[in-house]
Amino acid sequence: IRGGQVSDIREQPWQAAITVYLPRAKSYNFLCGGVLIDSCWILSAAHCFQERCKRLRVVLGRTFRLQNSSSEQIFDVEKYWIHEQYDDETYDNDIALLKLKSEFGICALHSPEVLPACLPEPNLALPDWTECEISGYGKEEECKIHYQTICQCKKLSGRLVTPNMVCAGDTRGLDDACKGDSGGPLVCKKNGRMTLMGLISWGDGCGKKDTPGVYTRVTNYTNWISSKMRAN
Ligand code: 4AZ
């Protein structure tokens, strides 16, 4: 996160860190952010998983990327799905769903540090300039930004913003997602609940004036998410 403030995981208890096993180093390295949406299910960005067949592990309940914490819960990933129409050139449909490995059908246990975000109703529309929050381990921070149903223009720095994307930013160009935050949450308060409206996807740099960040538009994928969860 660019701008933003250092934050405790209890402010964003759905924030996940996705790590990948590096055989040479014999250790797991941070890969991307993710969002806990149910005990055994994590959403993230498809572009994080372009190299296939990697051993993945998810860390929940941790405030700092590299600092173990007594509240953390760690899970291997049983399987993951990249959206069938994901386009790695335009980042259209930049969404992936991960299933955590469990023994008895229960994975994450709820605690003040580990709690799922709510998914929106498929037709939920928020007014432009609704205040929302993003978080990430890019710099262990969160920040407040404004939701924009449509970008000021259909293109951002020459790249197409498709109807499967939503923009959000801070007009001053201070607070923004940045490298390492991809896959993490854009949550907005709706009827008192923090609702997942976006997944950090791409942008033109970070924190440039009048240049919002681009997020995967989660409302377009609620059917895709629930059908995968039901079938698996
Ligand atoms: C990235 O590289 C990235 N300012 C994510 C979001 C934004 C820029 C870069 C948006 O993961």
TrEMBL record:
It comes from the Eukaryota. Disulfide bonds join C32-C48, C40-C107, C132-C188, C151-C167, C178-C206. Residues 1-230 form the Peptidase S1 domain. It is found in: Secreted, Extracellular space. The active site is at H47 (charge relay system), D94 (charge relay system), S182 (charge relay system). Belongs to the peptidase S1 family. CLIP subfamily. This is Plasminogen activator. It comes from Sinocyclocheilus rhinocerous. The chain holds residues 294 to 525 of 525 of the full protein.
